[in-house]
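ingest -> validate -> predict -> emit
validate: passed (alphabet ok, no gaps, 271 aa)
predict: started
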Amino acid sequence: MICHNCPVNCDIAEGQTGKCHARGVKDGKIVCQNYGRITSLALDPIEKKPLKMYRPGSYILSAGSYGCNMHCMWCQNDSISRGRVEADFLSCEELAGIALDTRSRGNIGLAFTYNEPSVGYEYVLDCSRLLKQNDMCTVMVTNGMLSPERFDTLIPYIDAYNIDLKTGDAKKYESIGGCLDVILRNIRAASDAGRHVELTTLVVPGFNDDADDFSRIVSAVAGIDRSMPLHITRFFPAGSYRDVSPTRPEKLYEFRDIARSKIDNVFLGNI
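emit:
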């Protein structure tokens, strides 16, 4: 049975899961197996998402589940992205209740983060609708790999996004399970709808650390909205890239200068 949640369009057999490990087939129907399954929950500074220009100085309750529809070899959260793991169940009402209870600690809402939230689309949608009814903000930290139809359905319920833009090369994206055209389309859709969007490019040695690749990223962002913030972040060994050296700081400074030629808001991270 075909899962149409994202551009991967996995053909899943009964009792099995797709490549994201979070969506499967039960009784002839596609089901969201990680619905309400929470592996991580913390009250974080909004800047940690990273969101530099959305409600600076505030805090946001951050929740993660398990699963991801891409397979970046350097994933810093591979323990919860690579397969099903033990998790606590929280209904939307319970999670919203925690968000409301932490308002006194400066919480402005809920961020779906840590793993790839779009693989749990139904839970994100249900929780976001409930949070908006309670006048709380919603944030999605995502790779942008959600079907355009579902992405557009979520837009009215998400206030701010941080979307990974990993490379400007479509073939490189394909090598890690991504689709550049869909991701750029979704970035534009969120921006055109008036949502706050910030982007992050993790500079990984040997993957996307050449100037031509990065220049394509910059041109794509500038073509959507040159005021859209771009975070250029430093890679540290993680996942199966534990033997790869961290990104040289000089490379980030070089890329910052390239970005500033076309983009107004450029930030360096992990440096």
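The helical segments are 78-81, 92-101, 121-133, 148-154, 170-175, 180-192, 211-224, 249-260.
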